[in-house]
Amino acid sequence: MMQGKKAFIFGVLNDYSLGWHIAKQLHEHGCETAFSHMPGEKFERRVVKAVAPFDPRFLTPCDVTNDADIAAAFQTAGEKFGTFDILVHSIAFAPADTFEKPFLETSRESWRTALDVSAYSLVALARAALPLMNPGGSIVTLTYHAAEKYIPNYNMMAVAKAGLECSVRYLAAELGRHPKHIRVNAVSAGAIKTLAASGTGDINSMIEHYQQKAPLPWEDGPTDVGKSALYLLSDLASGVTGEIHYVDGGYNTVGW
């Protein structure tokens, strides 16, 4: 289904990352992949090991809070890929203290950091990617239900996810009317034990709660997220943009 397509994927840390599961689905359906990683030998080693099964075209360092790094990453993409079809944004971060302290005590600097890394980075990457993306290309990011509802301890990350979801709608409106007609969507994943999620509180209890309350069994969430992202990134979703697509076993639809 993705034969001949090329994807540039940001945010894979290990094989638990949702970006990794999206890459797995893309690879299995014939898509060629490339990855960014945080600068530093430790991050590079970790990502090289995680993505080895996908035989990526290239890996490149990129700190998404640094515009020069972003420019360099897409310069590499232009050299190695020429053009590409897919951008995957699987990036989120807020300082640890924002999960530990009451939301009322969020510092100005922590607010800036969370919004910069988790939301503005989508805008920055989309802007840098646009000149290299093929017509009809697709961008997918990852969000969470806390953007709409109170989730204990999620605090500043919830605000960042709300900003991210709003950014999806604005980018979809602008890029959809661009001559290249680029689509922009988000997958809102249910409770999944990733490295990032483990820092937000008792993720195991959240997963158990999903398993008890979601209409569908919530047992293989990462694969489900990967499959839904595959759909949104493929030509099967050619008429879909600006959407927040829930993949949580239907948990967001229940009220008990």
Please give a handful of descriptors for the protein shown.
seven-stranded parallel beta sheet, 16% strand, Rossmann fold, alpha/beta, globular
Describe the structure.
By secondary structure, the chain is an alpha/beta fold. The mean pLDDT is 95. Helix 1 (18-28) crosses helix 9 (221-233), helix 3 (67-81) packs parallel to helix 5 (108-129) and helix 5 (108-129) runs parallel beside helix 6. It has one domain: Rossmann fold (3-Layer(aba) Sandwich). Helices cover 44% and strands 16% of the residues. Strands 3-2-1-4-5-6-7 form a 7-stranded parallel sheet, sandwiched between helices. Helix 1 links the parallel strand 1 (6-10) and strand 2 (32-37).
Radius of gyration computed on alpha carbons: 17 Å
The N- to C-terminal Cα distance equals 39 Å
Largest sheet: 7 strands, parallel
Overall pLDDT confidence? 95
> Helical element count?
9
Order of helices and strands: EHEHEHEHHEHEHHHE
CATH architecture: 3-Layer(aba) Sandwich
Question: What is the fold named in CATH at topology level?
Answer: Rossmann fold
Shape: globular
Number of domains: 1
Which range does the strand content fall in? Answer: 15-25%
Uncertain stretches: none
Strand arrangement, largest sheet? 3-2-1-4-5-6-7
Helicity level, as a percent range? 40-55%
Q: Would you identify the CATH H-level superfamily?
A: NAD(P)-binding Rossmann-like Domain
CATH class: Alpha Beta
Helix/sheet category: alpha/beta
> What is the count of β-strands?
7
Q: What is the assembly state of the chains in this entry?
A: single chain
